[in-house]
Amino acid sequence: MKPTVIFNILLVLGSLACSSKINPATDTKSVAKLVNMLPVDGCDWHFTVTSNNITAEYAASESSKEKVNAIIQAATPKYGVYSVDVDITYHLTGNKKSVQCGWGKTSEMDEIEISEIKLIP
Q1: Max intra-chain CA distance, the chain
Q2: Helix (H) or strand (E) run with residue 3 in it
Q3: Model-level pTM?
Q4: pLDDT band at 17 (very low <50, low <70, confident <90, very high)
Q5: Is the pLDDT of residue 58 over 60?
């Protein structure tokens, strides 16, 4: 085989490996709570992730809303509307997002792009 053919094959294989939905270099996999405490003067739907005794709050990006809404719809009949445990794979977008909270307030949270989200039974 010619070196250029081998190089082209490796290039194609490399690009296929990089096109995966989950990028282990930037994505984080965590157990999180998808929480809506707005009815009790907390904040509207957002995620809380606890790691090493530190809790962070994140808001889903607009492009992740469909995935989040599907989880909310699936969980509501069984779990109620305030909090569900989920496994998420996500990465920070570097943006902040305003989340509506009680008493007409908003909270600025780090925005996340969700690659995968699943209810924890």
Answers
A1: 70
A2: helix 3-18
A3: 0.76
A4: very low
A5: yes
